[in-house]
Design a protein that fits this description.
The chain has 570 residues and is α/β, with parallel strands linked by helices. The protein is 31% helix and 21% strand. Strand 2, helix 1 and strand 3 form a beta-alpha-beta unit. Helix 2 crosses helix 5.
């Protein structure tokens, strides 16, 4: 173990009076106020990175606590949506979603030589504590030589934000030796013990998997709210109806969680469980009476959606449609450094007018239906559903007598790129490259693509795969996507991808891409239109990308389970 230490705290922001009141403190390094939050954030983080050895600055992980900023940005956007609804009109581009917190990290990547991993925590009342615990534990366990923790909070009695950052490093400048290869420290590896899923196909991973193999598309007309002001009215909607006064997201999550715990052999969540929730924001008191606001925002006394997990261990994470993969990366590190014994990553996409309006104003939704990786693709078909993944170390699973579904062998998350909605193929390729290196692999047996069906995103993802494929001489590695069948689950989009990957490993079958008619050309991968058997699958790459420069890729590995008939259960 390494003894970590905290460096000098750097403080800046956009609230001059708040900063003036801190200048007398000798334990703080206070910068001049910035003209904008993004400029102040870059100044503070750059100063914190400059305190690190030169060899570490470019790749040190940054963990950001930004509850206040997320609440303010989301509340402003919801207010604009309510005004548009009242006026019977669509949002104007100028009224689009205020940049998410992760885009501040994207600004850092664009303005400096930093290209490390970045995570945004927005947990009510606990985000900063969680960020500090993560950095302290990861440096202590030798997972990282250093990390930077930062916080963005509203300045008291002033219209502006205060930004603080502190580097955490090993006290003696040395790093604890890592053993056991790419899987983690001390010979540990993190495994998937259970999965749960609810989609438009119904409850359970089996219903989703069979629908995917059958090539069915669960398309229907949106009935959750008025669609008259939107470009698209076709969605993949579940049949789940919540009881009066209760958000549909709770009902969706409870069904998925029950399946995941059952599959993991757990009657209930054990002690020392980390809960990571994707697809939710903190309580929004300023717009608490907005229609269906409880589908995106937690209640004031949020209890981890009834999970029983203590508030310090219940995390909300904000990385747009890549939130699920970022949650897996966080959970992996908490398990490897002993901050938790079990990790549960959850995500939900309950159809609501705010997510829908965001995609509408960006013109990301298809006016027909989604056709991932198709020459004639025209945009996203939004889906509804929820997913839950149970993770633990291989040692703990063995001690419980459980055979893992798969091993999380490598994962890479980066907040970088240019623009709000464009996927940067080079950053996507970097994530794929890093995930492969962590897993000790140069190729994979199958890729489950993010592929939402957008013109730019699908093409950029194939370009990223071709870049990596050219480096390692890939020859026709198969790739497909589920989003033409069950829709794009937005913040929860990674969960069907994980279930598809786990089932492909188990059943030795590659799923096709429902809705695909004219596959895009690629040099080193081949897009699957229909499912096909493939005996010997042992590795699956899952891509998960999002708006605002959120990029992630990870490797699930497992032994071949033997070919099964497609007509069997699952």
């Amino acid at each position: 173990m390494t003894h970590p230490k905290a460096g000098a705290v750097i403080v800046g922001g956009t609230a001059p009076r708040s900063l003036d009141g801190l200048r007398s403190r000798r334990d703080l390094s206070v910068l001049a106020a910035g003209d904008s939050l993004s400029a102040a954030f870059v100044d503070v983080l750059s100063a914190a990175l400059d305190r690190l050895p030169a060899a570490l600055r470019g790749g040190v992980p940054v963990v950001m606590a930004a509850t206040d900023y997320c609440v303010s940005a989301t509340s402003q956007y919801v207010g604009r949506c309510v005004e548009a609804e009242a006026g019977g009109r669509r949002l104007r581009p100028s009224e689009a979603m205020t940049p998410e917190p992760a885009q501040l990290i994207q600004e850092l990547a664009e303005a400096s030589g930093w290209n490390g991993t970045g995570h945004v925590l927005i947990s009510p009342r606990a985000a900063t504590l969680q960020a500090v615990r993560w950095a302290w534990g990861a440096v202590s366990a030798g997972l990282h030589e250093a990390m930077v923790v930062c916080e963005v909070v509203r300045a008291a009695h002033e219209d502006g934000y205060r930004v603080a950052a502190v580097p955490v490093t090993a006290a003696d400048g040395a790093r604890a030796p890592r053993t056991g290869g790419p899987g983690g420290s001390g010979g540990s590896s993190v495994v998937v013990s259970g999965t749960g899923l609810v989609t438009a196909f119904g409850d359970g991973g089996t219903a989703f998997w069979q629908g995917l193999l059958d090539g069915r598309r669960e398309l229907s007309e949106l009935t959750r709210f008025d669609t008259s002001r939107f470009r698209s009215r076709t969605v993949c909607q579940t049949r789940v109806e919540a009881s009066p006064g209760r958000p549909a997201r709770r009902a969706l999550l409870e069904r998925a969680r029950a399946e995941a715990l059952r599959e993991a052999g757990l009657d209930e969540l054990p002690g020392r469980t980390l809960l990571v929730s994707a697809g939710m924001v903190p309580h929004l008191p300023r717009v608490g009476d907005a229609p269906r606001i409880d589908e995106i925002a937690v209640e004031p006394d949020w209890d981890g959606d009834g999970s029983g997990v203590a508030p310090p261990d219940a995390v909300l994470m904000a990385h747009a449609c890549a939130s699920g993969a970022f949650g897996l990366a966080m959970a992996r590190e908490w398990l490897l450094c002993g901050l938790a014994d079990t990790a549960v990553v959850t995500g939900v996409s309950s159809l609501n007018p705010y997510d829908y309006a965001c995609l509408d104003v960006l013109r990301a939704t298809s006016t027909t239906v989604a056709r991932p990786f198709d020459e004639d693709r025209s945009g996203v078909t939004v889906g509804e559903g929820a997913g839950v993944i149970v993770l633990e170390t291989a040692e703990r699973a063995a001690a419980r007598g459980r055979t893992p579904l798969a091993t999380l062998s490598g994962i890479s998350c980066r907040v970088a790129g240019q623009g709000t909605s464009r996927l940067d193929a080079h950053i996507g390729a970097a994530c794929i490259r890093d995930a492969l290196a962590m897993a000790g692999l140069t190729t994979v047996d199958y890729v489950h693509g993010h592929a939402p069906g957008t013109r730019q995103g699908d093409e950029a993802e194939l370009l990223a795969l071709d870049q990596v494929g050219a480096e390692h001489d890939w020859r026709g590695v198969p790739v497909s996507s589920y989003k033409g069948a069950a829709g794009h689950l937005l913040h929860a989009s990674v969960f069907p991808g994980v279930v598809a990957a786990v089932r492909a490993l188990r059943h030795q079958v590659l799923p096709g891409t429902p809705g695909l008619r004219k596959p895009l050309d690629a040099r080193h991968v081949r897009v699957l239109r229909d499912p096909e058997p493939c005996d010997g699958i042992r590795s699956v790459l899952v891509n998960n990308f999002g708006f605002g420069g959120n990029n992630a890729a990870f490797l699930l590995t497992g032994g071949a389970a033997g070919l099964r008939e497609w007509s069997t259960d699952g």
